[in-house]
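Comment thread on ticket #2218

A.B. wrote:
> Attaching the input chain for the structure job we discussed in standup.
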Amino acid sequence: MEMILVTNDNINTVLPKYIEDNNINIKEIDNMIDTYMDMVKNNHLFMIDRDLLKDLLVDITYMYSPDDDANKSRVLYHLVGSDSDDDDDDDSCEDVVVSELTD
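C.D. wrote:
> Ran it. Output below, let me know if you need it in another format.
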């Protein structure tokens, strides 16, 4: 079996070419996930960190369909959402500790 390697260095050409060659319409993240699964089924081996790959797929989905608010929100969440969540978790942990100390 011959594999087609997809790396950090070539995803910007391999993925769009695959989408165009197969007349795939990317409107939402589910379309991109289906495309990814189809590529794996067709011997594309993604040699990219999984977290980075997820972020790339979200960004590329937004590039194909920038007028979709859900795509925009997903990109923004990946940029700032996890930082905000970490801060919230820290606050809730501090609240529990303070509560335990005052009880």
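A.B. wrote:
> Thanks. Noting for the ticket: The CA atoms of residues 7 and 47 lie 5 Å apart.
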